[in-house]
Specification:
This protein has about 260 residues and is α+β, with helices and mostly antiparallel strands. Helices cover about 40% and strands about 20% of the residues.
Length: about 260
């Protein structure tokens, strides 16, 4: 007897795949000893809602941070010169000074360092940049002060680059290699890079906009006694004014010994 054309041959019933069976076994959560099915479902529902709430909060925090970041970038794009904190005319008194936050950083020569150990027993001028937009202002202050600094005045210069974001942290080695090529070799020992979220350190430094330069004077106890935050490249007179403040404080300290 001939088979009629156009009629489908019967198929065997579908069976769940081995992968699906394994997934079911892994995903199924057995109840705790003495726990009813209703209690188990309530417990899992509560845990799921807690995870959902946590994820939602993380998304909201990320969006808020991104909006702040975009607003900070728009500020420097629309304005030719932005000064959020001008250079003060005098060093801060102890009541207005603030401590430099502890940071893990890597120098361009390859050694790891905690920033607080850099300031022990010596005055430091530190230039901090969170983006390439900030570099002209930072270099202006650092180079300007170095050009008029007398040899008798002991002041160390340090550069700190804040490399924000987890993604960039994964490319730590190639980024350090690239920076070694772009930074003058005589600065490699003094040039530090911090990888990771810099939100909290910037808050403690009063560095409101990471796209603007930040330069501070830190005393031998790790306390910030002077800082400027903005995009304006300093004039020679501004650099000289800072050197005079440092010289006056050095003379006062040496006279008190």
């Amino acid at each position: 007897m001939r088979r009629l054309s156009g009629l489908a041959t019967p198929r065997s019933p579908l069976r769940p795949s081995a992968h699906l069976l394994r997934t079911r076994c892994v995903c199924s959560t057995p109840p705790k000893p003495g726990e009813s099915l209703a209690a188990k479902n309530a417990r899992l529902r509560e845990a799921s809602e807690a995870n959902l709430s946590k994820t939602r909060q993380q998304l909201m925090d990320d969006m808020s941070k991104r909006n702040e970041d975009m607003a900070a970038m728009r500020e420097i794009i629309h304005e030719k010169t932005v000064t959020l904190h001008p250079p003060p005319a005098a060093l801060y008194a102890q009541s207005n000074a603030f401590r430099f936050p502890e940071l893990q950083a890597a120098s361009l020569t390859g050694y790891e360092v905690e920033t607080t150990s850099l300031f022990t027993g010596r005055w430091t001028l530190l230039g901090c940049a969170g983006s390439r937009f900030a570099q002209p202002m930072v270099d202006g202050w650092m180079d300007g002060v170095s050009a008029v600094l007398p040899e008798s005045l002991q002041l160390q210069l340090r550069w700190l680059s804040l490399i924000d974001g987890k993604l960039l942290s994964w490319f730590r080695r190639p980024l350090l290699a690239m920076m070694r090529r772009s930074v003058p070799s005589e600065r490699h020992c003094s040039f530090l890079c911090h990888f990771g979220d810099s939100t909290e350190p910037r808050r403690r430094l009063q560095m409101q906009n990471r796209y603007l330069g930040f330069v501070c004077l830190v005393d031998g106890r790790g306390v910030v006694r002077w800082h400027v935050h903005g995009s304006e490249v300093p004039s020679e007179e501004m650099s000289l004014a800072l050197v005079k403040l440092i010289s006056r404080e050095a003379a006062r300290e040496s006279g008190g010994r």
